[in-house]
Amino acid sequence: MDKIKNNDSYGLKRLESKNAKNAIIQKLSQDFNLTPIIAEAFYQQVSVYFSEHSNISLSSGEVSYEAVCSTEPAGKHIRLTRKVTCRLKLMDINSDFDALANFGLAGMRRLRIERLTRQAYDQGALLTYEDIALLLTTSPATVKRDVFFLRKDGKFIMTRGTKLDMGPGLSHKSIILDLYFKGYSFTDIELKTNHSETSVKRYLADFIQVATLYKQNFSQQQIRLIAQKSDRLVREYIQLYDIYYKLDNKRLLELISPEPADVNQAKKKSVPSSGRGGKNNE
User: Fold this and answer.
1) Does the pLDDT at position 221 exceed 70?
2) Global confidence as pTM
3) Three-class HEC string of the chain
């Protein structure tokens, strides 16, 4: 066998070069005036893109949809933003039909808005009103009214505008953390805000980073640069810290201290306060 391979009397190497991959590489090299090595590198990269955006298996009721990556900043042209291919459950027979029977078409549409926005966000993407309208074959104005209704009902609908905090008011992250410090369980927060437990824990990790830097006397500007968070979010997290530290909030103390909360409580009783929570005058 080794002798046959070494001699290559069957011309295996030449035959291997006649596959689709090499045909595409040859066309890339010819059409774009590239060296074979560069053309092959392009082919490999395009193969990765194809796998990420096209080679997706779908279950019954699911659709594949391209949405803007959740980390993309505001103000960037939509054509230049990074996209994420999402698997979205457009139709869930049991829950959708139940909503239709009890609340009509509007109720079913709102249930789908909750589901689609949550699924997109869990996959690292954000839907806009226009995206939702296209998926649900309705108008952006109708989606906007539905989202307003859902938010009035206490639900958080994670759209691109909401995530980037384009509108007025307290950011959704701070509201969710406020619920956590008030004693709500992850399950309660998930039901109340339409956010997964994974998302809530990610917000808590960001808060811990900001709070830790704040305790170490870093300025808001320094915290913003180190944590890579907006001025507004850093300011809100610091406000949350100050409010709940003064209240000796058990959950906050457990988050920010490497020691048990009861040890911190004992230390606070024996050491005079030096101003804002956790800071000293060294």
Assistant:
1) yes
2) 0.53
3) CHHHHHHCCCCHHHHHCCCHHHHHHHHHHHHCCCCHHHHHHHHHHHHHHHHHHCCCCCCCCEEEEEEEECCCCCCCCHHHCCEEEEEEECCCHHHHHHHHHHHHHHHHHHHHHHHHHHHHHHCCEEECHHHHHHHCCCCHHHHHHHHHHHHHCCCCCCEHHHHCCCCCCCCHHHHHHHHHHCCCCHHHHHHHHCCCHHHHHHHHHHHHHHHHHHHCCCCHHHHHHHHCCCHHHHHHHHHHHHHHHHCCCHHHHHHHCCCCHHHHHHHHHHCCCCCCCCCCCC
